[in-house]
Design goal:
The chain has helices at about 20-35, 120-135, 155-165, 170-180, and strands at about 5-10, 50-55, 65-75, 80-90, 100-110, 110-115, 135-140, 145-150. It is of the alpha+beta class. Strands 1-5-6-4-3-2 form a 6-stranded mixed sheet. A two-stranded antiparallel sheet has the order 7-8. The longest helix has 18 residues, at about 20-35.
Length: about 180
């Protein structure tokens, strides 16, 4: 089982504004996580040197909303840019049971949690579909970033058909996300 770091995240902070925590994340957390994932080309954590470029909230609801972390790595002279969706689940990090989606333990004062890769999480995917359906725009003032969800006309037609077929299902995503806070 891999070693996990504990990231200290004060209230109302962002990944980019946390210099020390960002350094620990880039140097000690992200390389090991990437080396364990099939989609990433390098298997040696020591050979992976990521640089966090920016981070932005993924949606407009909830204190515990997912974030998208954008980072760059250079492998064999080629720089590539990646995005990882992540979220803190405020459940104490369990060091006894390995969770392949876990990046690190997180502490915020007396509060303890787990930083998770949510790329395959059902609620994250449902939020992605909700954001597209609503053509949501998320603004992040600290870095001057803007995340725009632009649905195609085909996507909107199918979303409308699905909503007419099952009107209660549309609000379930938001309710599930709020319940996790």
């Amino acid at each position: 089982m891999p070693e996990f770091e504990t990231l200290v995240v004060p209230v109302n902070s962002t990944w980019v504004s946390l210099a020390r925590t960002r350094g620990v994340f880039e140097r000690d957390v992200l390389p090991g996580h990437l080396a364990r994932n099939r989609w990433y080309p390098e298997r040696s954590a020591k050979a992976i040197q990521p640089r966090l470029v920016s981070a932005i909230p993924f949606c407009d609801i909830g204190d515990n909303r997912p974030w998208l972390a954008f980072f760059e790595t250079t492998q064999r002279g080629v720089t590539s840019r990646y995005v990882l969706p992540m979220r803190i689940e405020w459940v104490r990090f369990d060091r006894e049971r390995y969770n392949p989606r876990a990046f690190a333990a997180v502490r915020q004062g007396a509060r303890e949690g787990t930083l998770l890769d949510v790329a395959t999480d059902q609620i994250f995917i449902a939020l992605l579909l909700r954001n597209l359906r609503e053509a949501l725009v998320v603004e992040e003032d600290e870095q001057g970033l803007r995340l725009e969800f632009k649905p195609t006309s085909r996507f909107l037609r199918r979303a409308d058909q699905a909503a007419r077929a099952n009107p209660r299902r549309r609000n379930r995503t938001v309710q599930q996300h709020r319940a996790r806070r």
